[in-house]
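User: Okay, second chain of the day. Same drill as before: sequence in, structure tokens out.
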Amino acid sequence: MPESLVTHGFLIFWEEALENLIRAILSEVTMPAPRKKISYQEFLHREYEFFRAPLAPEMDFYETIRSGNLRKVRSLLNEPFHEKKGLGVLSGEPLQNLKYHLTITIAMVARFCISGGLSTSESYNLSDYYIRLADEAQTPEEISDIHNEMCIHYTKQMLALQRSTITSKAVSTCIDYIYEHLHTRITLATLASVTNLSAPYLSRLFKKETGYSVSEYILNKKLETAKSMLSSSDYSIAEISASLAFPSQSYFTNVLKKDCGLTPKQFRSRNSRSIIRP
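Assistant: Same drill. Structure tokens below.
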């Protein structure tokens, strides 16, 4: 199963990709009179200032797409892309400005999905397709529609990738239920009820198809989500523990330490340094 933690190495890759995109954009961007190209360093500095504040929610959004959480992605697309607040000025022409930002978003989604297991060729073919659509768009509303279609398309691809090793409808139903109910206490009995199977039979089937027991799989997914929240949000450790229905904060601390050798505080400190610039 694809990992949901954004690693330090991937973040470096993200920053390099962003710099490359900005450099490419600069080759085309000109400013109003006097019409001269702004310097790369000046532009890069300004854009890093812009990306710093909203980085956590942006990372969460990309992570949600990578996890294949279709329901959550759809809920996050309630604000039209062309009405999004705080977009930096990459062009003096509003429509072109939106196209530049959408291109960056597409490139980021493509790279996140590659890191989650989507083939490089498939991911880049999709990104090329949507960048071409963006280039041909004539209105801000078209840009928003392309953005939403792109996000849904990539999310469905990631969901299909996760299900590719699953052969039974019952186990697929269990996985869908687990993803949608990580905020609750999920038991084998609950999943047996959802699938109309006996608990012993479902337990054997789930282990055979995923390689994990039901309890191991649920814990892994909760820990993956907790790691993402620790590294890319400012929720307190207690809030994260409660939101994922861990029995207690001390239990959350113990299972995370067993998983990666770090307490929640240590994990956040180590990963926040690689995400948030001073």
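The chain is about 70% helix and 0% strand.

User: Thanks, on to the next one.
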